[in-house]
Specification:
Blueprint (H helix, E strand, L loop, with lengths): L11 H15 L4 H8 L3 H8 L7 H11 L8 H9 L7 H8 L4 E6 L10 H13 L5 H17 L7 E7 L1 H4 L5 H15 L4 E6 L13 E5 L5 E6 L4 E4 L2 H17 L3 H12 L4
Parallel strand pairs: 1-2, 2-3
Antiparallel strand pairs: 1-4, 4-5, 5-6
Helix pairs in contact: 2-3, 4-5, 7-8, 10-12
């Protein structure tokens, strides 16, 4: 029988498949044996082992049950999440952990509607654009959209955080997916602005050089009143905890919020764009 040689260093997905095969063979199981235990086909097992199929959360949980790894540091579910986050910028997965516990979230975004405000259709269109450019795989795109949905769901808790958003006007005027995507997205912004724990501002183009930031920025206030900042470039993200660096960002954010349009004026601009008028 031909046996493909696996290179676990080729990618995180290849390492996952190689470890699956190694654990299976250590127990003396064939692919058919493991398939029966996991309730998958042997063809599917082979595909994951050889890196042809992307492992999913369901597959990983099933593998953990079969190998007795549930809840351990070696769990496939944990490895899967690391692979899933591989399409995200450095520092972002750690930021998200803080985001889920924050009591106040402040966002500034340029070009695209902030992720926490994106509709599923808008988020999927953005991800598909990255696939077309070759930046991520279709599987990573799907995981990215699912991951965003999880972040959004985490905000609907008994005591939701206060969320303050300042969006550059470019976020509204940058067409993503055409009218069939943009109209519901703009409607979503109007709806969010009416919620008691959300504040929405637009930073108009007229602000010019008075705009405080030229890159996206997230500021989180945690339960102990400490503040962390997360900023991104095109290539990487950086999580900052040192107050000497974070506090000047907070001051600049307050200045930006003061210069931006009021929430009423921001909603009026969004509503005008929804109607398709200049």
């Amino acid at each position: 029988m031909n046996r493909n040689e696996l290179n676990p260093d080729a990618s995180p997905q290849a390492a996952y498949g190689a470890r699956l095969r190694s654990l299976r063979e250590a127990r003396g199981w064939t692919q058919e044996d493991l398939a029966a235990r996991m309730e998958y086909s042997s063809v599917h097992i082979s595909g994951v082992e050889n890196g042809r199929k992307f492992p999913t959360s369901r597959f990983s949980r099933s593998a953990d049950r079969a190998f007795g790894l549930e809840g351990t540091a070696d769990a496939f579910e944990r490895e899967y999440r690391e692979i899933k986050h591989g399409a995200l910028l450095e520092g972002f997965p750690e930021y998200v952990k803080h985001e889920g516990r924050a009591v106040e979230i402040r966002l500034f975004q340029i070009g695209l509607v902030p992720g926490l405000l994106q509709t599923p259709e808008y988020a999927r269109t953005v991800a598909e654009g990255d696939v077309q450019r070759g930046a991520i795989t279709p599987e990573q795109a799907e995981e990215r959209v699912s991951f965003l949905a999880e972040r959004q769901a985490a905000l609907t808790r008994p005591r939701p955080p206060m969320v303050i958003v300042v969006m550059d006007e470019s976020c509204l005027r940058h067409a993503v997916g055409g009218a069939e995507v943009m109209e519901p997205q703009l409607q979503r912004l109007v709806e969010v602005a009416s919620l008691p724990n959300w504040v929405l501002h637009v930073s108009p183009f007229e602000l010019g050089a008075r705009r405080s930031f030229n890159l996206p920025l997230n500021l989180l206030t945690l339960a102990d009143r400490s503040v962390v900042a997360y900023a991104e470039s095109q290539a990487r993200g950086h999580l900052e905890r040192e107050s000497t660096a974070v506090l000047p960002m907070m001051r600049s954010y307050h200045q930006l919020q003061a210069e931006a349009l009021s929430q009423a004026a921001s909603v009026a601009m969004i509503s005008t764009l929804r109607k398709g008028t200049p």
